[in-house]
Amino acid sequence: MRLKLLLSITLLLTILRWLIIGNFALSIEALVFAQILHAFSYSCYHAIAMVLLKRFFTEGNEGVGMGIFVGVTYGVGGTVGVYISGLLWSVSPWLCFMLAAAVVLLAYLVSLLLMNGPEINDEVM
User: Fold this and answer.
1) Can you give the pLDDT at residue 58?
2) Residues 81, 17: contact at Cβ < 8 Å?
3) Sign (positive/negative) of CA torsion 13, 17, 18, 24?
4) Do 3 and 122 meet the contact criterion of CB atoms below 8 Å apart?
5) Which of 36, 90, 93, 101 could form a disulfide with 18 if both were Cys (CB 3.0 to 4.6 A apart)?
6) Per-residue pLDDT at 93 exceeds 60
7) Which residues contact 33 (CB under 8 A, 6 or more apart)?
8) Which residues lie below 8 Å from residue 62, measured CB to CB, with a gap of 6+?
C-alpha cells in the first residue's frame, strides 16, 4: 500500500471520528467505535511518520528527525491545539469537535495537493 493512500484513509477516518464524538457523545456504541477509529488512525499516522523520518533523515540523523517530529507535533501542535480547544469548549463543546473535523479535512486536502514525491508514493506494504 502506498503511504499517501494510507495517510488519506487515516485522515478520512479521523474526520469521521471527530464527527461521531461531536454528534453522538451520549451513545456508548458510537464512542466505542470512535475509539477503535482512534486506535487505527493514531497508529497509522505514527507508522507513516516513522517511515518518512527514516527516509528523510539518513543513518545517524534519525534522532534529529525524531526531535523535530516530537517538538512540532506534540510540543507546538499539542500546545496550540489544547489552547484553542479550551477556548472553543467554553463556547460550545460541539463546535470544538466540528472544528477539529474541519482542521483534519483541511489537512487531508493539503495532503492531496502537496504529497506527490516518490517518498510518499512508494509501496511500503
Assistant:
1) 84
2) no
3) positive
4) yes
5) 101
6) yes
7) 20
8) 53, 54
Query: At residue 3, what is the residue type?
Result: L
Tens digits of residue pLDDT in 20-41: 999 999 999 999 999 999 999 9
Q: How much is the pLDDT for 38?
A: 96
**Residues whose CB falls within 8 Å of the CB of residue 97, separated by 6 or more in sequence, listed in order:** 18, 19, 21, 22, 23
Q: What is the C-alpha to C-alpha distance for residues 94 and 54, in angstroms, rounded to an integer?
A: 38
Neighbours of 72 (CB within 10 A): 11
What's the chain's length in residues?
Answer: 125
Q: For residues 120 and 56, give the distance between their C-alpha atoms in angstroms, rounded to a whole number.
A: 11
What band does 117 get if pLDDT is binned at 50, 70 and 90?
low
